[in-house]
């Protein structure tokens, strides 16, 4: 690779980082937008968000000439079914998040998005039958402790956090398996649920309970703008995904819930007690282990922990312990099953 090509690659990567940061910052400040509509019922906000997002996304499809990719997805029955379920899960996620913001539960909502990556790992284990590595297991355990602490704080299950995490994790899993472009996917998803949104808005219109009127005012502009507010971060993220590394996207994803948490505590004055701090502390530790689960130095540490554990707890000689826990070139470590370890110990 010559110097000019290297410079172009670096430039593209920097542009990808910029797009990623911009996308997650916009997602992080989105609660400010929904808070300006807190006098409108959550269901009505969701209906407008779905409808205007659909309108905006078809505009994006037209501008970027993505009709062929759209047709390629629509003609495949398996992908249509996948997007249908994506539409259901993202609608649940949007409804819950808007409701959380407008009922002063943004701290709990931020908690939900912090634990989403761990829920994705759990889904991979349950649905895809993938095996947890050591650090992923540690992360999952810490999340469970964090949720238990949150239950102690609220005196109930943190339902909003759990619904947000599980719905978005399911959304991501289905979309990943279907291998659908994010812009094309959101266009079809919103198209699926737009008829329901229109029907709901017509019912509000007939019963005289609608907030949208045929006039130019702040309410109408905010409701119409919900489409752009939803789509723009996704467009920036799609550009980032083409340019930035997976590691960059993995780290920047925590910007959004961090910003939302700050908004909830500092601007909306939601309570953040010592118990909240302890609960979030467990989650942040879990995210640390999750983020570095595949880092090579973490694998070496894991190797040493297993070897030490075997030597001290089951009296396995050091040479045997090193055979049980074998470092492998790359980013994997092969650990013999518990049955094999027990046989050696015996």
Keyword list:
single chain; 346 residues; mainly alpha; 2 domains; 2 strands; 79% helix; 2% strand; globular; disordered C terminus
User: How many independent structural domains?
Assistant: 2
Structural class: mainly alpha
Count of β-strands: 2
User: What proportion of the residues form beta strands (DSSP E)?
Assistant: under 5%
Order of helices and strands: HHHHHHHHHHHHHHEEH
Protein name: EamA domain-containing protein
Keywords: Cell membrane, Membrane, Transmembrane, Transmembrane helix, Transport
GO cellular component, one term: plasma membrane
Main location: membrane
Q: Could you please describe the fold and organization of this structure?
A:
- It is a single chain.
- It is globular, with a radius of gyration of 23 Å.
- It is mainly alpha-helical and 346 residues long.
- A two-stranded antiparallel sheet has the order 1-2.
- Strand 1 and strand 2 form a beta hairpin.
- It folds into 2 domains: 291 residues, no CATH class; 52 residues, no CATH class.
SSE layout and pairing:
Blueprint: H1 3-35, H2 42-63, H3 67-74, H4 77-102, H5 106-126, H6 134-154, H7 159-178, H8 182-207, H9 218-243, H10 246-252, H11 255-267, H12 274-291, H13 296-313, H14 318-324, E1 325-328, E2 332-335, H15 338-345
Antiparallel strand pairs: 1-2
Helix pairs in contact: 1-9, 1-11, 2-4, 2-8, 2-9, 4-7, 4-8, 5-6, 5-7, 5-11, 5-12, 6-12, 13-14
